[in-house]
UniProtKB/TrEMBL annotation, chain C:
Annotated region described as Disordered, given as residue ranges: 102-135
Keywords (A to Z) from UniProt: Signal
Biased composition regions of type Polar residues, renumbered to the chain: 117-126
Organism expressing this protein natively: Sphingomonas aurantiaca
Protein name: DUF5666 domain-containing protein
Signal peptide positions (record): 1-27
InterPro entries (alphabetical): DUF6152
Keyword rRNA-binding recorded: no
One Pfam family cited in the UniProt record for this chain: DUF6152
Amino acid sequence: MTRRIARLSLVGTMLGLASMACGQSAPPMGANLEGVWKIAAPTTVLKPIAGAVPFTAEWRKAYEANKTLRAQRKFDDYDITLSRCSNPGVPRLALTPMRFKIWNRQGVVTFDYEWNRALRQINVGVPPQPDLMGQGLVPTMTGKSKGHWEGDTLVSVMQGGSDRTLIDDLVPHGYDLKVTERYRLVDANTLEDRITVEDPAFFKQPWTSVVTYKRQPDAIFAEDVCLDRIAAKQPAFSK
Amino acid sequence: MTTRIPFSVTPIAALMLAVTPALVQAQQGPPGPPPAGGQMQLPPGASGGPPPGAPTGPVLTDAQKIVADLPPPGPGLIPPRPPLPADAVMPTADPRDLQGTWVNNQPLQFRSQRDMYGALAPYTMAGAKVLSRRVMSLKAGKPFINASAICRPPGPQWQRDLNFPFSIIQDKDHVEVLFEEYHGRWYISLDPQGVPLPMQKQYMGRSIGHWDGGTLVVETTDFRQAIWLDVDGTPLSANGKLIQRMRKVSDVGRVPFLEVVTTIVDPTYYTAPWTIVRTFGWAPHQAVFAEYNCEEQVGDPSVSADAGLVPEPRD
Amino acid sequence: MNALKASRFLWPVLVASVGVVAGPAIAHHSFAAYDMNQTVSAEGTLKEFRWGAPHSSMVLVYLDKGKEKQMSIVSGSPLMFSKQGLTPRDFKRGDKVKVTFHPNISGQPGGAMASVKLSSGKSFSDTEAARAGGN
C-alpha cells in the first residue's frame, strides 16, 4: 500500500515537474507522447507524400551513385550506418525497425532507441550553454534539434547535421540539411511524425513524408550492440 | 543526515605508502635537564612511537603489496562547472525521485585503491595480478583492449565514473539511466515479474532494484564479460556483483547531490566485499547530451577491430 | 622545443585520457603520445574527417612504397579551424591534401596535425597566432 502511494505521489511529482520546468515546453494534457513506439509499416525508404524526391540535377547523380555502390555491396563508401553501426541520424532514425521510447523530462524530449541504444534529443526548454570548446560547430549525425509545442503538436527543427548520414537508405544530403518534424498523437495509440526535408543544394524544394507508429506495451529493452553483429558478419539491422 | 566527504585517494595513498616504520626512538640513560622551549619530556624508557618490532600502519597482504608497488594512478581531473542559474530547475523534494541530470562533482579516480573508509582494497593474488598487468600495459605504452576502447558498454561503474552527464528517468516499475558517454544505458527493474529483464547476458549486467527508505538499492549481476571498474583496470569478473545504493543527499539550503555507494562483491578478485562512494552534482543545464558516435571510428572496416590495442591475456 | 606547442597537443590527449572529451575513449594512452620535436609531411587522399570538440581526427589514405595505407591524424575542434577561415564543409572526402604532423611516439603512422593544405588552396597551420589565440 505504501509503495502504491509512493508511486502515485511520484507520478504527481513528475507531472508537476514537467509543467513547472518551462511553461511553453510542457505539452497540454492529452498530448503526452511518452511511451514505447514501433513503426507501423516497416520500410527503409522515406517516401514523399506526393511525387518523387525532387532532386536537383547534380545530386540526382549522387543518388544514382549510391545505388550503384549498393549493388556492388560497397556499403562503407556511402552508408556507414550499415557498414559501421554509425548513428543513422535525423531523419533516418524515424525509420528504425525496432522499438523506441519517448521521454519528455527536464526540458528535453528524448528518443531512446532499442537499436544500438541510439539516442536523439529535442531541446524544448534547456537554455543554451556556454560553448568554450566549439561543440556547437561540430556537425553530428543527429544535429541539433530545437523544439516547441504548437497546440498538441511537438514541432522540432533540426540543423547542424553531418554529411555522413543518409536521409534514408540511399538519399544523400549536405551540411545545409534542415529537417522539420511535427509529432502528434493521431489517437491514443498512434503517433504520427510529419517530416519535411530541406537542403537547397540537393532538393529543388522541401519535401514532406509521414511516418506512423503504434504504441507498444511497456518494456525494458535488451541491450543491443550493433558492433557485435557486424563483427559476426551479420547485418547492422537485424530485423 | 551524514554528509560524506569523498576524498581523493592518490595523495593519501602516497602518504601512507611512503611511511617507513623507522620512527621508533629509544631513549636511553638517565633523563637530562629539562629541555628549553617547551619540548615534551618523555619518561625514561618511553619512546616516541610504537614499541620496537611492532608493525606500524596496516599490514599488507602479498596481493596488496603487489598493488602498492605499482606506479601511482594519474591525477583525476574535473572540468570547471558553471554555477547553476537562479532560475534553474531544482530536484523535487521527494526522496524517491532521483530524476534529473547529474554529473560527477569530484575529481575522477583512475584506480580505486582504497575503500570509502580508507582501507586498502582486499585483492586476491589473482586480482592483484590482473590489475598489475593492466597498469603495466598502460605504462609500457601497449594498453590492453577494454570495452570502452572498442565502443562497447563498459559496465555500470565505469559508465558513471566519467566527467559526462547522465539522466535518470523513473517509470512505474523501472528506472532508466541514460548516459552521454558511449550513448550508454543502464536499466533497472523494480519489479522483475511485472517488467522482466532480458534473458540474455549483457555488458551492463542485469540490475534489479528496490527502495530501502529513501535509498534505491540496485544489485547488478550476470555480466556478459569481465568488466573494468576504472580506467586503470580494477577488475570485476563476469561472476562479480555490484550493489549500488543510490540516494539524494540534501544539505539544507543547498542543491541536493546524488550519492552512489557501490559495494564490490567478487571472490575471484577480492577476499571480501569492499565499498566505494561517488557523488554527482545536479546539472539540469546538461540535459541535452552531446552526441557520442564511437561506432564511426571503431566500426571502420578498414582498420582492425581491436583499435590497435593489445588483447589482454586470459588466465 | 616550444612548450606551448607541446601543451597544445598534449592537452587533447590528456583530456581524452581523463574522459573529459566527448570522443572515443581510446584506451587512455600515455600522455606523451606525440613527438613534438619532429614534423613529418604526407600527401594523400582525405578519406574522412571526424569532427569533435575538443578534438577531431582525419583519416588520410596515402601510398607507402606503392601500397595504399591509412593513417589517422588528430587535430582540434572546428573552433580552431574557424579562426583561419576553415569550416567542416571545406574538407571534402576524396580531396587531395597535404598534411604535416608530429608523429606518434608509438611509431604507428599518423600523429598530431601541424598543418593541412587542401586542393582548394585553403590551408590551416598551427601558427604562433593560432597558439596565442588559444582554443
